[in-house]
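testing teh design pipeline on a random one, pls ignore if ur not involved
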């Protein structure tokens, strides 16, 4: 919900700026973690989005998020934390996905990524903006994540295998005892035969 509010805030500020200066490209930028939890040695997916709400194409666009994910704490598995886009026409959007792998657990502040672009073809002006900010997030140790959030199916399966011999053995002893000590009730035909004698 916070990310949605931040996106709305950025969008409204961009529209206000666009009303003051309607000429040129204006980019709205978002940054959204797609993974629910950050876990060491497991993939952590981040999606970036750019949308041109201006009336001109944005050119020479650079998206840079290297400050949020330093190389000593995160390994880039797929995608790059700095990407260049040559052109984004009015009304077009651009999506970029990065797959990271946290190396160390701990609390991290995932700040906004920076975008720079030129507001028109051949323009020498450079506009600078920021994406939405996910904020602080905790990267769990693998063992802690498995204990707290992972599926417990394997544990229940092992538990079932451990108790199965005792449960099955008790059931077989019960059935055997019932066969020896419980007398079957006579059927209706047998009752008539007994009365006739």
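output:
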């Amino acid at each position: 919900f916070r990310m949605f509010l931040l996106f709305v805030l950025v969008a409204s500020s961009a529209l206000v700026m666009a009303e003051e200066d309607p000429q040129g490209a204006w980019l709205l930028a978002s940054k959204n973690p797609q993974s629910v939890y950050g876990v060491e040695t497991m993939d952590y997916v981040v999606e970036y989005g750019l949308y041109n709400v201006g009336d001109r194409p944005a050119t020479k666009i650079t998206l840079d998020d290297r400050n949020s994910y330093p190389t000593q704490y995160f390994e880039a598995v797929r995608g790059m934390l700095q990407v260049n886009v040559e052109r984004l026409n009015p009304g077009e959007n651009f999506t970029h996905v990065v797959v990271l792998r946290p190396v160390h657990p701990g609390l991290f502040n995932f700040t906004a990524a920076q975008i720079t672009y030129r507001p028109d073809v051949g323009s020498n002006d450079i506009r600078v903006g920021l994406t939405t900010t996910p904020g602080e997030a905790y990267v769990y140790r693998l063992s802690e994540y498995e204990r707290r959030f992972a599926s417990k199916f394997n544990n229940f399966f092992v538990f079932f295998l451990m108790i199965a011999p005792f449960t099955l053995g008790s059931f077989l002893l019960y059935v055997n005892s019932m066969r020896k000590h419980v007398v079957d009730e006579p059927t209706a035909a047998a009752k008539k035969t007994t009365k006739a004698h």
